[in-house]
Design a protein that fits this description.
Distance between the termini: 30 Å
Low-confidence stretches: none
Strand content: 35-45%
Number of domains: 2
CATH topology of the largest domain: Trna Endonuclease, Chain: A, domain 1
Helix content: 10-25%
Radius of gyration: 18 Å
Mean pLDDT: 96
Strand order of the largest sheet: 7-8-9-12-14-15
CATH class of the largest domain: Alpha Beta
Shape: globular
CATH architecture of the largest domain: 3-Layer(aba) Sandwich
Order of helices and strands: EEEEEEHEEEEEHEEHEEE
Number of helices: 3
Number of strands: 16
Largest sheet: 6 strands, mixed
Length: about 240
């Protein structure tokens, strides 16, 4: 996934009200950017970190700039925009990188499903007798121990709801996937963040026991592009 315009670097001054961040650009000017991430952004939102912003070039937007990348304290480039993960996974499927999800006839996004009026991120459709495949994508940015990503970085009732929806889909005989997209390339494994949201961890393990498939891939992040690269282990 290439960024449509060159990103602009700066230094994070503060993140506040979840969706806003003050950033000092390299020319000394200070701007307020939109933060497209509702989580705690653990390790990615500390004042003083280098960040990269995208100019939305949309005069109707209240905030011209969008925060796309942080460089963590250890120097890792991390994609913080949760809105990109669905596209990254779709690209990985369509390119053949995500081998377990090959062979379907079509891919649709944001399709309503389930018992709680949810929307599945990606629906892989098949002709004939093959089961449809429901793929729920989760963006992952946090890592608190070397080489291991964790999810979620804040209590996620919505994430638990999605796992319950996937379990219901399995009872209907369809294929269900929880797909963790780690927008950082310094991790080789992912685990549930039981210390942050124990309910999510318990529900994830229950979902896997009931046939929901868990997958995780990492991505390489640069100021020019973010690209899904390879699978990583899930430690339950």
């Amino acid at each position: 996934m290439l960024f449509p315009v060159s990103l602009v670097p700066g230094t994070l001054l503060r993140r506040y009200k979840r969706f806003l961040a003050d950033v000092e650009l390299d020319d000394g000017s200070v701007i307020t950017a939109h933060s497209p991430n509702t989580g705690s952004m653990l390790g990615c939102a500390d004042p003083g970190l280098r960040v990269w912003l995208r100019d939305a070039a949309n005069p109707r937007r209240k905030y011209r700039w969008s925060w796309e990348i942080s460089r963590s304290a250890d120097g890792t480039m991390v994609g913080i925009n949760t809105l990109l993960s669905n596209g990254l996974v779709a690209e990985g499927i369509e390119s053949g990188l995500v081998k377990p999800l090959q062979g379907y006839d079509g891919l649709r996004r944001e399709v309503r499903y389930g018992q709680q009026n949810s929307r599945i991120d990606l629906l892989l459709e098949a002709d004939g007798s093959r089961r449809q495949c429901y793929v729920e994508v989760k963006n992952v940015t946090a890592s608190v121990e070397p080489g291991v990503a964790l999810f979620p970085d804040a209590v996620s009732q919505r994430g638990t709801k999605h796992l319950n929806e996937l379990m219901h889909i399995r009872t209907e005989g369809q294929r269900a996937i929880i797909f963790f997209c780690a927008q950082r390339d310094d991790v080789t494994a992912l685990r549930p963040a039981d210390e942050i949201d124990p309910v999510y961890g318990e529900t994830l393990r229950a979902a896997v026991e009931k046939g929901v498939e868990a997958m995780a891939y990492r991505a390489t992040v640069t100021p020019r592009s973010i690209v899904l690269t390879q699978p990583i282990e899930i430690v339950l």
